[in-house]
Amino acid sequence: MKCRKCGQPAVVALKRHNTAFCREHYLEFFYGQVDRAVKAYRMFARDDRILVAVSGGKDSLALWDVLLATGYQADGLYIDLGIAGYSERSKEKVVAFARARGAGLRVVSVREKYGLGIRELARQARRAACSVCGLHKRYFFNREAMEGGYNVVATGHNLDDEAATLLGNLLNWNTGYLARQAPLLEASAPNLVRKVKPLYRLTEKEIASYAVLRRIDYIVEECPMAVGARSILYKHLLNRLEEVSPGTKARFLFGFLEKGREAFAAGEEEVQLKACAICGQPTTADICSRCRTLRRAGVKL
Ligand code: Q46
Ligand code: ZN
Ligand code: ZN
Q: Could you state, in order of their start, the residue ranges of all structural domains in the chain?
C-alpha cells in the first residue's frame, strides 16, 4: 500500500477513510484531526494554559504529546488513585514522559489525602469504585485547574469512548446525559473549569498508531477496576459494526453531535447550582456527592 499524499510506502491504513499514509503524512493527518476538533468547538487558543488529565495510558499521553508538539502550553495532572501495583506503574510512565519533555506535572494522591485508596474508599462507602473514582476525578480536575491558574482541562476521550458512552446513554434513555454529552463542557458556575476532549474525532486504533510512531511509552494494562465494565461491551459491539461497515462509529457520534444533541439539550430544565457547604464546589444539593461519599466512608472532612 502507498501513501495517498506522496506515494511512498504507507505505514498506517485507515479503512474508514479508505486511505493510507506514510509516517510524515499520518502525523499530518492526526494533527489535522485534532486541529479540526479544537477549532470546531473553540476549545482553547495559543495563549490558554491547558491542564491535561493524564492516566499513563495511550490516549492521555498522546493528547499531551500532540499539544506540546503543536505549540500549546500544556501541563499534566496525574491523579494517583492508590490502586496497588497499577497506580505505581502508571505513575512511572507519566513522570518519565514529563521529564523527557521538560513538561510541568501536577500529582495528587488520593491515599495521601484521605488515608485510603479509591478501592477502599468505595468499599467503605458501599458504592461502585468507578462512580467514586469519577466524583473524585471531577473534583481534582476543577480544584487543580483553579489552584494552578489553568483556563481549561483536557481529557483523552477518543471516538470509541464517546461512541460507547452515547450507545449506553441511548440504550437507557439518559436524556440528561445526552443533553450534556459533547466535546466541550463550558464552566457553568464559579469554581468550575471548561472541559474539552480534543481527541474525539480519532479512534483508539488511530491513537495507538500515533503513540507507536511517536515512540510514546505508555501503560498497556487497563485499570483493574475496568474489568467487566459495560462500556467495554459497547465498544466491542460498535467494533463489530465497524468491521462490517467502516465509518459507522464516526457517523454515529458525529451525527448525534450535529443533529441529535440539541434536541435533548432543549428539553432540559436549567438546574440551580450552589456551593457545597464543605468543599465549595458547585452542586445541586447542600453537600456535594463527593463529600457525602467521603463521609459515608468515614473520612474526616
Ligand atoms: S480509573 Fe477510575 Fe476508570 Fe479505574 S476506577 Fe474505574 S473510573 S476504571 S476510567
Ligand atoms: Zn506520505
Ligand atoms: Zn463537596
A: 23-296
23-296 fold: Rossmann fold (3.40.50)
- Reported as type and span, the H/E element at residue 51 is strand 49-54
Closest listed ligand to the CA of 90:
1
User: Ligand 1, from 127, 225, 293: best to mutate by most atoms within 8 Å of Cβ?
Assistant: 225
Which residue is closest in CA terms to ligand 1's atom 7? 130
Q: What is the pLDDT of residues 12-52, one digit of tens each?
A: 999 999 999 999 999 999 999 999 999 999 999 999 999 99
| Dist. CA 12 → ligand 2 center (Å) | 10
Q: Whose CA is nearest to atom 8 of ligand 1?
A: 226
Q: What residues line ligand 1, using a CB cutoff of 6 Å?
A: 118, 129-130, 133-134, 223, 225-226
pTM above 0.70, yes or no: yes
Instruction: Write the pLDDT tens digit of every residue in 175-200.
Output: 999 999 999 999 988 889 999 999 99
Nine cell digits for residue 19: 486511505
The residue whose CA has the least distance to atom 1 of ligand 1 is: 223
DSSP state string for 211-254:
HHHTT-----SPPGGGTT-HHHHHHHHHHHHHHHSTTHHHHHHH
